[in-house]
Amino acid sequence: MSGLLAAAVACEPARLSDLGTLVQVLWQFLSLSLFSLGGGNTLLAEYHHLAVAQFCWLTNTQFADLYALAEAAPGPSSMLVGLLGLGAGWREGPFWALLCAYGAEAAILLPSTLLMVMACLSWKRLEHSPWRVAFERGLGPITLGILFAVGLKILRTADTNWAGVVVSVLVCVLMLRTRISPLWFMAVAGVLGGLGVINR
């Protein structure tokens, strides 16, 4: 019981001014921008740590809901960052929430985009370099390992009952063993959630 009270006290949302929240959001996502190897989802564990554990912008359930929304919507997976910024600034009102959302999205995309543009401009010149081949081969396992860790983080965040765990494991097995479109899995999970079979 005392552990739960300590966790609740430790996760009290930071009381910042409107500008303080915006600066905090911008700094956190600017500092993460260059580490998104393999796409925005590779930083999901760090997003969760920042938004839920460190700054208490969102609850665990809200984070899982925003992740599901970002993945279901068309567009890049980095749109989750805008939603996290929205959650961070919400206590200061809708204006600051929108400002934090757009600021977070720009902060996560701008540095990494500029770096990729510069890399692409010089990548062709290194086409036959052994350094380029070694770099590309080395990043593959790193990215797969990060994505595996992200998958485990999502399972721990979203699945809080046995039915959710069973559905998640079944979907993983079917995705690896069959050629069924992921849209069917999303549709079935949506129906099960709507019927209350799986919930949080």
List keywords for this structure.
cell membrane; CHR_Transporter; flat; Chromate_transpt; 74% helix; disordered N terminus; Chromate transporter; membrane; 200 residues; mainly alpha
What does this entry show, briefly?
It is found in: Cell membrane. The chain is mostly helical and 200 residues long.
Q: Explain this structure to me?
A:
Keywords: Cell membrane, Membrane, Transmembrane, Transmembrane helix. This protein has nine helices and no strands. The chain has 200 residues and is mainly alpha-helical. It has a domain at 15-127. The longest helix is centred in the middle third of the chain and has 30 residues, at 94-123. Mean pLDDT is 80; it is low at 1-9.
Topology:
Blueprint: H1 2-10, H2 18-32, H3 44-54, H4 60-72, H5 79-89, H6 94-123, H7 130-158, H8 162-177, H9 182-194
Helix pairs in contact: 2-5, 2-6, 4-5, 5-6
